[in-house]
Structure formats: C-alpha cells, structure tokens
Amino acid sequence: MDGLDLAVPAGEIVGLIGANGAGKTTTVECIQGLRKPDAGVLRVLGLDPVTQAAQLRPLIGSQLQDSGLPDRLRVSEAVTLFGGRHGAGGQEGASLLEQFGLGSRGRAAFASLSGGERQRLFLVLALLGRPRLVILDELTQNLDPAARRSVWAAIRQLNADGTTVLLVTHEMDEAEELCSRVIVMRDGRVVDSGAPADLVDRHAALATVRFSLPDPPAGLLDQVRRLDGVLGVDRLGPRVTVRGDRRIIAHVGAALVRWDSVPWDLNVQVPTLEDAMLDLLAAESRPVELAGAVR
C-alpha cells in the first residue's frame, strides 16, 4: 500500500472499487489480520488486527474471493465447524442455508457444489455468529440473476440489523445498488470517495439522448440547442444526438412532445458509476482527500 488513508464508519455498506492491482484485497487482508501492514496505524472495531487478532476474529465475518474448503467436507459439516468457532447454534446455520437456497444440500460434499453454490456457502459461513463487520470480496461472482437479487436483499437486511459491510467488487451496478458510499482505489491509494451518485456527478455527469427524425419540424433542433443543460446537438441524416447534463432527459422529451414529434426509437444513456470510475482511473493524477483510520 502507498500511504492509504480511509475510514469505514459503523453501520454503513461501503464499497471498495478499482482496477485489478489497486490494493483492494491487500487492504481487506490487513483489516482481518491476514497480512501485517508495513507501517501506519490500523484499528478495526477499536482493536489492532495484528496484536489483538484473537479478540477481533469473532467480530468479523469474511467471504473472500479465493476461499476454499476440503473437497470431501459436507455443507452441514462446514456450517457446524464455522458455527462453533463463532458461537452460532445449529438453528442459525440451518436458517442461513435455507435463506441462500442450500437447505437441501446439507449432505453434499464441497467438491460437488457448483460455483454459485460455493459462493453462497461462503456467504453463509461469513454470516454465522452475527458479526459486527462483514467483508465480502466479489460477493455475487458466479451467481445467476435470481440468486444475485436474493443475496442483495440479504445484505440489505443484514445491514439494517446493524452490521457494517465492506464490499469489494468489480460489479459497478452492485456497488450502486448496495453501497451508501464507495471508495475508489488506484495503486494502493484512495483517489476519491463518496455516495455513488455524488461520484457520478463529479466525474461522469453527461447524459446522452438519441432519436431519429427523418423530417424534423423547422426550428425544433434550434430550440433543443437552447434547452437548459444542453451542451451539444449533432445530426447525421435522420439520427439526432443530444449531449448535456441529466436535466436534458426531461427537457428534450418535453420539447419533442410540444412539437408533436415523438420518435419511436428515443434512447437515453445515463452516466453510471462505471463511467465515473473509468474517468478517475484514466486521470493522470488525483488528490487523496480522505483522512482517518479503519474503525
């Protein structure tokens, strides 16, 4: 890491995003005491992960990208083993297995599970014992869309019950859906942080509206150019492209209705967190603006 400064307040769902090699996994390994920081001060739930690992371990649940279990270990045995370490009863484990669609797989060996089933099992193990902090690395990797939505709902409920969630993900829609705040990392540093919508506003605020009008009424496009938020209007044959801030979505639509020229193919492209992150990572330099410690 390179002088990393960040804080994760209690009760939030915070996302760590960035390109491969940005330092996200190293960061969460340090938080869990799996890796010793070279320098600096690190506190997790008020404890030092290096010198107070025994006290900290029961308070953290983690589902890591490279997790693994012995091939012959059965699902129910894994839950019993991890539940015992976290003081969780059998009923809690059984309830979590049902919640994540593994209730009928208790006798299945780990080696026989699909990629999605393994991912859900690791999530069950991370949630045993109701930890105060849960670290999730590539939460929904290998999950089908229905399972993904189910896992998202479970994470929201977990957070509503008071658990802090640190989410490491390459899925920008997942970060936008779940996180109250995201931290963008590059080369072991924080380059920006904030609510997903705020990052989009700062780094990818432009929207695009496209539509076709083979024979637009005289004066329509001139009026569109004068609308609030419009930065440019291009026309290539019947195809019209309008660019500007997000206000143009409503203004362009209203103008087309007023001129009785509603196209059948109107398409809106709204800036996303992915656009904002790509802008940040493409920049040559960004100031580091956060200060604090992991709490």
Give a written overview of the molecule:
The chain is of the alpha/beta class. The chain folds into 2 domains: 13-197, P-loop containing nucleotide triphosphate hydrolases (Rossmann fold), CATH 3.40.50; 206-270, Alpha-Beta Plaits. 36% of the residues lie in helices and 18% in strands. The protein has 11 helices and 10 strands. A 6-stranded mixed beta sheet has the order 2-3-4-1-5-6, with helices on both faces. A 4-stranded antiparallel beta sheet has the order 8-9-7-10. Helix 8 (196-203) packs across helix 11 (273-282). The longest helix has 16 residues, at 145-160. The radius of gyration is 24 Å and the shape is elongated. It starts with 12 loop residues before the first strand and ends in a 13-residue tail after the last helix. Mean pLDDT is 86; it is low at 286-295.
Give me some keywords for this one.
Rossmann fold, 11 helices, Alpha-Beta Plaits, 36% helix, 295 residues, alpha/beta, 2 domains
CATH architecture of the largest domain: 3-Layer(aba) Sandwich
The number of helical segments is 11
Q: Given the C-alpha coordinates, what overall shape results?
A: elongated
Q: What is the CATH topology descriptor of the largest domain?
A: Rossmann fold
Straight-line distance between termini: 18 Å
Q: Widest sheet: strand order?
A: 2-3-4-1-5-6
CATH superfamily of the largest domain: P-loop containing nucleotide triphosphate hydrolases
Largest sheet: 6 strands, mixed
Mean pLDDT: 86
C-alpha-based Rg, rounded: 24 Å
